[in-house]
Amino acid sequence: MIGKKKAAKKGKRTPIGERVQFLMMMHPDVIADIKQVGIDEHRAAWDVMEQAAREFLRRRKAKRTP
Predict the structure, then answer these.
(1) At residue 8, does pLDDT exceed 60?
(2) How far is residue 37's CA from residue 58's CA, in Å, rounded to a whole number?
């Protein structure tokens, strides 16, 4: 029997590190801008969002600390 290739599952990505999938809703213009930043910086959109979230949380924590 000639070897058959298994079809890759579409839509599944291997987690990077300990990251888990998280679904959110945003305005289409914001999503497009995030994707464009990723393209401009040769990064994934999730990486752009993770950086933005970390910066937001850092600023928020600094405001709350007396």
Answers:
(1) no
(2) 21
Q: Decide if 38 contacts 51 (C-beta within 8 A).
A: no
At residue 65, the pLDDT reads: 80
Tokens for 28?
């289409």
Question: Rounded to the nearest 10 degrees, what angle do helices 45-64 and 28-41 cross at?
Answer: 110
**pLDDT tens for each residue of 13-29:** 677 788 888 899 999 99
Give the pTM.
0.72
Kindly state the DSSP code that residue 22 receives in the 8-state scheme.
-
Contact 49/34 with Cβ under 8 angstroms? yes
Helices in 1-66 by DSSP H: which ranges? Answer: 28-41, 45-64
